[in-house]
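Structural prep section.
Before we set up the soaks we want a predicted structure of the protein with alpha-D-galactopyranose in place, mainly to decide which crystallisation condition to try first. Input record follows.
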Amino acid sequence: MDAQQIKQKFIQKFGESGSEPRVFHAPGRVNLIGEHIDYNGGYVLPAALEFGTTLIVREREDGVIRFASTNLPEEAEIKVDEIGLHKTGEWTDYPVGVMVELAKRGYPVSRGYELLYHGEIPNGAGLSSSASIEVVTGYALLTMGGFDRDTVEIALLSQAAENNFVGVNCGIMDQFAVANGKKDHAILLMCDTLEYKHVPFQTGSCKLVIGNTNKRRGLVDSKYNERREQCNTALEQLQGRKSDLKYLAELTPEQFEQYKDALTDETVANRARHVVEENARVLSSVEALSANDLREFGRLMNLSHDSLRDLYEVSCEELDVMVEEARKIPGTLGARMTGAGFGGCTVSLVHEDDVERFVREVGDRYKSRTGLQGEFYVCGVGEGVEELGGS
Ligand code: GLA
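Run finished without errors. Recording the tokens verbatim:
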């Protein structure tokens, strides 16, 4: 559906009025490498996708906010002075949470709005459909209110909405990538300081292929929180040896070898080793990409997956099968799970001549081994949040 068609849906839903609705878009994201690093204060390398969430917004005079979606059945209608009271456990918690955080920061939503969301990102696939809804809402409401739109602030307040209102303890990576993406570039983000730079992501004759396992990410929240706690335990124990250590990802692999005997539990030590080595892999990836060495980047992607499977233990059978089958295709340079894990998507770098074969053969073998129908998206890197047809 293009913006014009979504606008028509908007008119069907909310009717005509004097003012013209405005159109905003925020992408989904894929993380290229640097998994489970954001809450450990290190480097991540995500990129914005070419598909995401489109939001059509129009002001209302009566202080009522109406939410609807073209792809989700739940709708909501709330009064501006009752925003924070409206928590339902449905998708509308994401935009409402953003409104609560905007108010905390001195940008209260004081007018009524009609908001129609059109989501192209499969829900629960680990491609940040929720971050996309949050960021597009924050950006649109600040724009409509005539305020400054600082995309780093928007990422932070969107993360806060997810942490405080929705109740998911995520890091900053997803919202940051969605808010600050740039076409044909990955984002090298330092999650402690939020310093970032856009790294050209030119894959030449290769394509990024995202593979959706269509395995629902069961238990992801509780396992995610458990991993965060294990990282905190590792940090506390390592601080006994290095008192100025603020985050696990500050350690180089050499320093980790030096201090690792402070870690008393093998599982906790494995989690910490993943973090330290994965962080180093992100920096090596940036070097490989700037030297146009896609083979090396692919090798690092493979190492990342193996570490998430064996040390961090956030993969699952479906992700492992898809990655294993992906690596059997001769034109695959690297394949790994992406996002939190326990289901969701893989990302592979595949030579363009082999993409068709990849989609067919990996799809067939994945289906015969798991009984699930995978889905594949061959996609480029898109823009971060923006107003379409606006300024
Ligand atoms: C989820 C979280 C992110 C990040 C990744 C793992 O996507 O929302 O903050 O921690 O998992 O890298």
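Observations: The CA atoms of residues 163 and 169 lie 5 Å apart.
Flagged for discussion at group meeting.
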